[in-house]
Amino acid sequence: MCGIAGCFDTNCIPPGFEESSAWLSCMNSLRKRGPDGEGTWGSPSKHAILGHTRLAIVDPSPAGDQPMVSGNNQISITYNGELYNASKLRTELESDGYQFRSSCDTEVLLNAWIRWGRKMLPKLLGMYAFVIWDDQSKRLFGAVDHAGMKPLVWKQEHTRLMIASDCDSLRALSGAKENLSSTAVRNVLTMSCCPPPMTMWEGIYKLPPGHCIEWSISEPVRVTRYYSPPELINKAKRVTQEDFKELWEQVVSDHMIADVPVGAFLSGGIDSAATVLAATKAGTKPHCFTLEMEGDASEHLDAQRVAHALGLPITIEKMSLLDHELHAYCGAYDEPQSFSALLTMVNIARLGGSQVRSVIGGDGGDETFGGYLWQREHGPDAWQAWHDNAELKSYQSRINSMVENPDADDRTRVLARKVMGSYSYVHGYLARVFPGFHPAEARVMSSSWDDPYTNEHVAEWLVNADRPELPHLRRVQRLDLVGFCPSSILPKVDRGAMHYGLEIRSPMLDRRLIDIGLTQPVDPCELIADGSQSRPHLRSYLESNMGTQSTKRPKQGFSVRTHDELRFWRARCEQLSETKLIKQGVLNTNWASYIPFGDMTRLRSICMLAAWAESRIA
Asked: For the chain: N or C, fewer Cβ within 10 A?
């Protein structure tokens, strides 16, 4: 895993640009992502410069250094990721006459581009973000993987295109001239994160999952989709338990390929337990890491039992003080979120990164196999029924004015989220999965911006991904895969881990598994509301090897669990008037009027946004 950067100009890049403060600041910002080395390459035509900071996982020798250049010095690549079928692609390329100087997957990707061009994308199995520059055609091509596991952000400024792994690095390259985006700030207040393709900064964009970016000195930026998750049920082929076992163990085995030890994040849940089980079947013994939280909800004893049953070493650390992890969150994340799981993420990433360079985890299992509880809620009060609820719809014309009033009661503010969910199925999904303020509240709380922010703005990034023809469970899984996962889960994982020079591999998001997880007919047992029979193939795999007790723990996320969390956020809110967020008018001084009593989600949202902004706005 690595950090990547690039600067491209229809005019020539100025001489000595690689020694400029902008370029050096960008590379310095990326160094945490790649502490093992760095490199810069300037094109002979002077139209492009590529940068790379390296975390050496496969072929750590100098032969794997980047940017990597073709034999004729015309095509160069800067790449962040892992290709799990690199060996197979190498064999295919070698049969076509291509020769290799290294054993790293970067060279496989470079030669695959030379051989197939963009037709190589369906062949790639892995996680990646890369940029390739062809100096002969003066053309750029970049892409991110199908799920968005690896990030790429970009900005066009006059004749120049800039690309980097994250917003902090790109803003270092651009001179940090960008203003906060009003829509992005309001998205964070309303949805607890900033979904792609938008970023927190005007003019900077994320490349969404399964998309590529193209640019040349004679053509503007073009962003296109090359991958879309499955949207049809395959009734002709039911996956048997034996089929699943064979594929699952192959996928995890592929994800253990490395030239350094690969550890594992282990909770008490099904996904991570099944992952480490399959890793041991592949002949590896990953060192496991977990956190001990307060109270009976802590999963560390379950994780310890799994590790001991499999003969694996495990390191358990008590969850650090929230104030400490909030500080770490501010440094790690280039964009804010309001989910407390970001605080546990930096804690466990620091623990894992102190002992290994790469880990596997269970992230993505709920999206691929249907494990979230909101995917199986049913009945007249369930979120998917809100858009058919006549009583909720009756409030639509007046709810905005009701909640804009700072004196609105708590019941009205809680009701407003359900009213937002009554506009459409996607609005219901957003209101249930992405907790926060009502759009009208977010707009009036940030009234220094006079541009509109409505229910339509909240859903516009996701509405085209909905597939009403799918059964409800698969329909929500697909929304989770293109919605919650790349907007919150994967940025949480990538930025939190890479802050400590740690790579995280997510076998649950392998495209081969997604292709069966979203296409299988729904088994009635999957719809049981408490999720006790969800993910039947994965559950059966674990039970057949470790007994039924291994799957009995109730579903819960790996979020902060401490008795004094509400008290902590209340105390932080008392200091908010001294933050830049308030002093510079990003939020109005009466923000507290829009928080119902004891609403920890909204308190945390304001505090985490303010903490993140403190070091990033002038």
From this structure: C
Number of helices followed by number of strands (H, E) in the chain: 25, 17
164/166 Cα distance (integer angstroms) = 6
- Which residues share a beta bridge with 212? 143, 224
CA-nearest of 320, 365, 373 to 347 is 320
Report cis status (omega within 30 of 0) of the bond before 197. yes
Q: Is the dihedral of CA 608, 609, 612, 615 positive or negative?
A: negative
Is residue 262 a contact partner of residue 287, using CB atoms and an 8 Å limit? no
Residue at token pair 């750029």: 140
- Please give the Cα distance from 450 to 186 (Å, whole number): 12
Count other C-beta atoms under 10 Å from residue 424's C-beta. Answer: 17
What is the rounded average pLDDT of the residues 248-271? 96
3-state secondary structure 115-158: HHHHHHHHHCCEEEEEEEEECCCCEEEEEECCCCCCCCEEEEEC
Confidence of residue 574 (pLDDT cuts 50, 70, 90): very high
Neighbours of 313 (CB within 10 A): 13
**Can you say whether the dihedral through the CA atoms of 575, 580, 584, 588 is positive or negative?**
negative
Return left, alpha or beta for 406; rule: phi > 0 is left, psi -120 to 50 is alpha, else beta. alpha
- Which pair of structure tokens corresponds to residue 579? 């933050």
CB-facing half-sphere around the CA of 268: CA atoms within 13 A: 21
Give the whole-angstrom CA distance, residue 351 versus residue 320.
Answer: 11
Q: Find, among 361, 444, 493, the residue nearest to 189 by Cα.
A: 444
Q: What is the pLDDT of residue 170?
A: 98
pLDDT digits 0-9 by tens, 264-275: 999 989 999 999
Give 383's contacts (C-beta < 8 A, 6+ positions apart). Answer: 374, 377, 421, 428, 429, 431, 432
Backbone CA torsion sign across 386, 392, 393, 399: negative
User: What's the CA gap between 288 and 352, in Å, rounded?
Assistant: 8
Q: Report how far residue 152's alpha carbon sits from residue 170's, in angstroms, rounded to the nearest whole number.
A: 10
pLDDT in tens, 158-192: 999 999 999 999 999 999 889 999 999 999 999 99
Query: Please, are residues 359 and 352 in contact by the beta-carbon 8 Å criterion?
Result: yes
Q: Is 454 helix (H, G, I), strand (E, B) or coil?
A: coil
Give the residue from 58, 46, 55, 114 showing the smallest Cα distance to 85: 58
What does each C-alpha distance from 103 to 3, 87, 138, 148, 331 come to in angstroms?
A: 20, 9, 28, 25, 34
Residue 96 has what pLDDT? 96
In a 10 Å sphere around its CB, with 0-12 CB exposed, 13-18 middle and 19+ buried, how is residue 451 labelled? exposed
**For residues 503 and 494, what is the distance between their CA atoms, to the nearest angstrom?**
8
Which residue intervals of 505-561 are DSSP H helices? 511-517, 536-546
Reduce the DSSP state of residue 504 to 3 states and report it. Answer: strand
